Structures are given as structure tokens and as C-alpha cells.
Amino acid sequence: MVTVTEKAKERIADIMKAEQYDENYFVRVAVVSGGCSGLSYDLKFDNEERKGDQFFEDNGVKICLDIKSYLYLAGTELDYSDGLGGKGFEFHNPNASRTCACGESFSV
């Protein structure tokens, strides 16, 4: 399961409102090959279920993971930062053995 912080929830709600996404949309989180550490996070809004999708809801946010990504992301926290160090979504992944300096890629 992926958990969602209050700041991430607020930012997701802001984006959904700005893009006029209705309650049929959810946040799709995936792990894809790439990045300087080998694997990267992919986050987008979607409204189409695919075979093998795993759905969770935390803090009022509906999250979808494909089965492969679930194995990499179990226990991960989705956060949002708007501080001086950078702006954007952050993943706090307990399964990552190494992350790159920018935090956008990892390895296990």
C-alpha cells in the first residue's frame, strides 16, 4: 500500500480541480526503467482500469498500482514539497537500497 501525506493530498486535489478531473479519476503510480539509479517513479492521473491493477485509498486519495510496481512500492509514502530544496512530489520508499541525489530514481 502507498500512503499519502496531507501536503500530497492537498496538491493532488488542486491538480484535479484545475484539470477538471471528476471522481472517476485516480492517481496511477508506477515504477519504470530509467533514471540514474535504474528505476524511476511515474505518477499520473488516469480513469481506466487495467488488468492486474491494485487499488488503495489513503487520506481520501485513490491510488492505483500495477502488480509489478506494487512489489517495488509496498510501504511507500507519497509526499509533496514546495520548499527551497525543490518543488514536487516525493517518494519515501523503504524498499529502495539506493536513490539518486534528485530523488527521482532508485534501485533495490
- How many extended strands? 9
Averaged pLDDT, please?
87
The CATH class label is: Mainly Beta
- The second-level CATH architecture is Sandwich
Helix content: 10-25%
Structural class: alpha+beta
Shape: globular
Residue share in β-strands: 35-45%
What low-confidence regions span 5 or more consecutive residues with pLDDT below 50? none
CATH topology: Hypothetical Protein Aq_1857, Chain: A
Q: DSSP helix count? A: 2
The main β sheet shows up as:
6 strands, mixed
How many domains, in number, for the residues?
1
First-residue to last-residue Cα separation: 17 Å
For the largest sheet, list the strands in their spatial order.
4-5-2-3-9-8
The helix-strand sequence is EHEEEEHEEEE
Computed over alpha carbons, the radius of gyration is 13 Å
Organism: Sphingobacterium alimentarium
Domain Core: 2-104
GO molecular function: 2 iron, 2 sulfur cluster binding
Protein name: Iron-sulfur cluster assembly protein
